[in-house]
Amino acid sequence: MGPLIPQGIIPMGWDFVIALLIGIAFGFILEASGFSSSRNITGVFYGYNFVVLRVFFTAVVVAMIGLQYFDYFGWLDLNQIYVLPTFLSPMIVGAVIMGVGFIIGGFCPGTSYTAIAIGKIDAMVFTGGLFLGIFLFSEFFPFFEQFYYSDNMGNITIGEFLGISNLMFTMIFTAIAVIAFYVTWLIEKRVRKNHEEYKF
Amino acid sequence: MNKNYIILMSMLLVLAAGLLLLPEKNNTKQMNPEELMWDIVQPTRYVTTDDVAKSIIEQDPLLMLVDVRPESDFQDFALSGAINLPLEGFASDDTRAELDYPKKNIVFYSNDDLRADQAWVLAKRLGFNNVYVLRGGLNQWIKTIIQPVEPAQTASAEEFSQYTFRKGASLFFTGTKLSTTATTKESVVVTRKKKSSAVAGGC
Description:
- The structure holds two protein chains of two kinds.
- Chain A is mostly helical.
- Chain A has helices at 15-32, 38-46, 51-73, 88-105, 109-117, 121-139, 141-148, 158-162, 166-192.
- By secondary structure, chain B is of the alpha/beta class.
- In chain B, 42% of the residues lie in helices and 9% in strands.
- In chain B, α3 crosses α8 (157-174).
- Chain B is elongated, with a radius of gyration of 31 Å.
- Chain B is built from eight helices and five strands.
- Chain B has a five-stranded parallel β-sheet with strand order 1-5-4-2-3.
């Protein structure tokens, strides 16, 4: 049956309406999970709060397992899903910049908007910087255009890259997620002993 | 640790392990049948003999001619620069490797467009998007490029310019000498100035 839009079950014109609805739901979940708080975001780095890691790992694992079952039941044709191309080294550099931005700013781009929605002034400053960054990036794009498009590995999945089936990789990734949940729980317990004043 | 978390985690693990029991799916990426049908009815896959002749003359680096007739026919006559991939062995891995030039415009031709069209559908199914068919095949090639027919006096200027091009292309491909009439030849009398004298003066 799915994917709904490429199969023509939902007309293309609804793209933006659906995007808007998903965006609202995403923002709501971010705020409800406490992601508008910079403490939660940076807590991953300092080791006292791993809620971000847990929420995202859970989201990824649930989506992975769910989509594979959907494919099996014939509800969704995974072959028709668009896989974004991988540019390995530019992506690593981008991820490092993003991570540093997380720790310094205390928000990721999405959470800064949910924080604005609950009236945080530092988030407003953060989004100002975000737009400045976008502007500078666009202006100076020709300087790093070559690097930006380098290392193109095409539309590849991790399973294809490692030469194992996507089902196998899902299993391995789920195991990694569960281990990560347990390890971060242990770290949290130890670090929070020294954070008696810390409250959610 | 909360008991609920443990239950949820074990559920996740069981579901993930269940995935391993699912049958391995054949993930060959194929063209959507509807898309293929849509492409088949489009005339855009055809290129004219004039276009191909022009590309050959201009030595267009993007042009790749593929002869899909049997090898014996290919030995007898082929367009310059063409490679031979007989339709019989078309679905082999060799074909895939031979056609794997995503930037090139691959043009199939046969005696007419029938076999070339078949090759085109096969190539399309193999996932090549940059494939075309020479409209009319070699028969059309002989008719238009090798032996062009002069248009009637009342024909449009475009037809005449097309004819001029074909005539020129015919010369290019057949190597026939330009037949020049005597009247066009004018003997040029070269008159040389006589040197007035030996070197006068000097240093």
